[in-house]
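Morning run. Coffee first, then this:
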Amino acid sequence: MTGGDAGGRLVRPFTLTGGRTRPSRADFTLITTVTAIDPQPARAARPQPEHLRILRLCAEPMAVAELAARLDLPVSVVVILLSDLLEAGRITARPPHPVSRATEDLDLLQKVRDGLGRL
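And here it is:
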């Protein structure tokens, strides 16, 4: 026995978060886009290995759900780690753009429906 879990991890997810089960912030959804700040702030403390993995993956903007999948970690754990990085000024988090409910969108959809009905 190697000491890992069924997924082959040597460290349990709750140890990555220092036993925390909730993020310190509510900034993140599954589709929030996260980007590492370049260059990293000089005043920030040395990040943990998991934080470094996140920063490498987020060199280009990436959604929280994709990040969790690539890290093979539960989203809840990733969000806690992202909260740490956001508070340290190491990442930016951009919420999803709100969907427009404008009447032009409805008019366009009705025109498409009518056009399809004529086919």
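The longest strand covers residues 33-36. Good start to the day.
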